[in-house]
Every structure is written in C-alpha cells, then in structure tokens.
Amino acid sequence: MVISTLTDKGQTTVPQEISDALRVQPRQSLVWEIGHDRSVVVRPMPSVMELAGSLRSDRPFTNIQEETEAATLAWAVLS
C-alpha cells in the first residue's frame, strides 16, 4: 500500500512508486475518475502526439496540425 497526504491547499504528491508504474513524466496531466463507491481511478492523459494517427477517417488529413486538432477533439469526446 502506498500512502500520500492531502495538503491544506488540496494538493498531494504522486509517490515515486506510482509515477514509475504509470510511466508519467513531470508536468504530465492525470485523468481522475470517481466511482459510485467513492473509489478513484487515475490514468495518465496521453499526449496529443500519442493520439495522432490513431483516428479513422474517410478523408485524408491535409497536414499534421489538422490531425493534431482532430486527435485533441477525439480525446475531449472520450473524456
């Protein structure tokens, strides 16, 4: 069991063991989901570049900026 403490400002440090297991980097965003039983699931938010190229489309993308925008929109819909 790994324990961290919530500060007066509502912050906590992700223990090294957890950040290593999640393979997260400093300043990477984390997605927090609360279950009906008050349990919490934390997942690293993939970067836009990790999502680029993962979308299916009937039309080709004209450039990387368009694909990046589409991947960002797709992630927002899934969240």
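Next protein, fold it too.
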Amino acid sequence: MTNILPRQLDDLGLTLPPIGQGTMGIGGYYEKDCTRDAEWIAGLRRGIDLGLTLIDTAEVYGAGHSEELVGRAIKEVRDEVFLVGKFSAEHSRVSQVIAAAERSLRRLGTDRIDLYQPHWPNPSVPFEETAEALEILVQSGKVRFVGLSNFSFHEVQKATAILNPMPVRLVQQEYNLIDRTIEEQLLTHCEATQTIILAYSPFLQGKMVPGDARKTILDDLAKKYERTVAQIILAWLLREERVVVIPKGSTGTHVEEFAAVKDFCLAPEDIHRISGAYSPRISWIPVSQISVRGGGYTTYEEALTNPLGFDPSPLDLAQSILMGNMLKPVKVTQELAEDAYTLTEGKIRFWAWVLAYERRSLIPAFVEKCPERQGQNFESEAQAGGSIQQSAMNHSAWMRKKVVCA
C-alpha cells in the first residue's frame, strides 16, 4: 500500500515529515506543570527517532515550560528537527516580537527557530509592524522562515502581501473531521502557492464524541485496515498533499501509533465515505441561547470594558469583524433542551461577535451534543448549514444571516 510522502518546500529543496509533534499541554496548558517532565521528554525523543521531526510549540504553552521541555528533548539532535514557534497576539509590536523570540530561544536552548509566526492575528496592531519584526529576526539568522497561525483566508492574503518578498512558508490552522473550515478557500490557496498547512487538533483536542453515530464508519475502517481509529483519522487528513498534521503524543506508545500512519493510505472510496459522513456543518445559533461560564468574561459589560486587559480586546476583534474579517466559528455543546447551548471554546470571539452584532444575532458555531443527546438526528440542529460553502464564511453572508430573535 502506498506510503504517505514527505511534504516539499519546492524552491528550497527542503522536505518536512507529513506527521510532526504538537506540544499544547506538554509542560502544562497555560500554567507550568512539571509533574510529567521525564515522560514528555521521552515521548518527544521517541517521536524524533521515528521521524516525527517537526515539533510545534509556543511561548504560551505551559507558560514557557513547553519550550523548555522541547529544548531538552532536541538538545543532542537539534539539526535533525524543524522547530516551529509562535509568539502571542499581545506581543505583536516590533520590540515585543523580538523580545518574545529572544525569550523562546533561551528556553529552547538554541540559536535559531526554523519557522516563527504570530499565534493569532492582533487587529489592534498594524501587521506592517509585526512584519518588520519578523524581517529583522530573519535577517539576523535567529529565524529561518515565517508563517501565520489562525489567520483567516483574507488575513493570510493581506499578511502575505505585506511580508512580500519574504514568503509565507506555512499556515497553521485547526483541521479535523468536525472543523473543516480551511477547505473552502485556504487549502486551495496553499496548494497554489506551495505553502504547507500545519494542521493542529487533528482529534479535536481529544473530544471526538464516542457516541456520535458517524464514528461507526471509523470503527469499520479501523477493522478493515487493521489500524486504530486515530490512525484512520490522520490518514484521512493526510489525503491532502500540502497538509502536515501535529498530534500530541503523551507517551512513546502514542507517537509510535502516529508514526505508523506514514506506511499506508486510505483507498479513494474510503476517503469519500469519511468525507461524506463528516460533511462540514456550521450552525447559526442565537447568542441569547448560549450560556457562558467559567473564567474570563461572562457578561457583556466585562467584554466591553476589558478589565483583564486582553490584547486584542473583544472590542478590537468586534471592529475587525465589522471590517469583514472572518470569525473562526466558536464551539458549543447542545444541552438536553433544544434551545440551550453552552460555550465550550472561543469565549473572546463570542463576545467580539456580541459586541459587533448585538445580543439578538446569530453566531456561527460547531455544535457538539451532550452525551444524553447522542444518537439523535444531527439535522435537528437549528439553522444548520450543509457545507462550509453554503455557510458563507465572509462578512456579507454573515450580515445576511443576522436576524432578530424573539
């Protein structure tokens, strides 16, 4: 059976492995966690030995501890690793980008980051300023190449033009069976420009719903190919030649499972079977029906005044939305009641949407059903779109979707 081939950066004669290693949660999520350091380092090293030599990290992961662990893992094999780093949105100004890069280099214990990129766009900072800092870092040799993380298609186009003649080598986006947003425009753009897509959260951060009736298809194919469901999912994502996936392996056994995906490909009919079952479906949910809980902002007034000092603020993002920039859909869980949802991901984006379009509008969302509702018809979702194209991921379409709810 045909193997999955390395990805080419054609004009450089450089290849990247189709499967790398993500590190979100390694060394902690947003706070430092040292309880599993030895295990994390061993897993990263095992992945490198198996050819998973692209490692993605960020200054925010584990409050910097993820970078420290990656640095310890690659110390003896630095030249074998393609290291991807990200700086936080609040560090988008020239001096901040450069200072963030210097801190990351120290934590990583290296003199260079192979590819460096903003973690999220910051509409409160002109991208020309961020681009200036990236150019300085490339010219100094501390960064080899630049990329863009979590930028919409239109933001990628704008940023690419500003960075020119310095090319964008990689675009990092969430990509999994549920979130297929990149397939509408971004994937075609990357194929045309020979840009690599770095796909994070291939397993929806471990939230693939076991009770989802569609999962029986994955189970059937796992039996057919004598593989695991995780391997089937990765193989489906890797059907696209410009995609590199970065699952997080918590143990050496996990990275061995991921590495084995390089040795097989799904048959075309099986790819079509998965694609049809998990057809893109973005729902439009009344914001008034969504509960917002937990840390961060839980009220309109908090989002408006931004007392925690988020940069960009919800109001900054609201203004960006009104200018036509795409909002990445939020994620919600549908509760037992038909008209009740709980926000599970994208709190700042949620409040930005509310500030932009008021509390009586609809917001684009990916809907996960609570366990008690599993097995019910997915078509019962309110205002569900049949595909990303039909969901119209641009500002004019969103404005047409804006309605007043009772």
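About the second fold: Residues 94-108 form the longest helix (15 residues).
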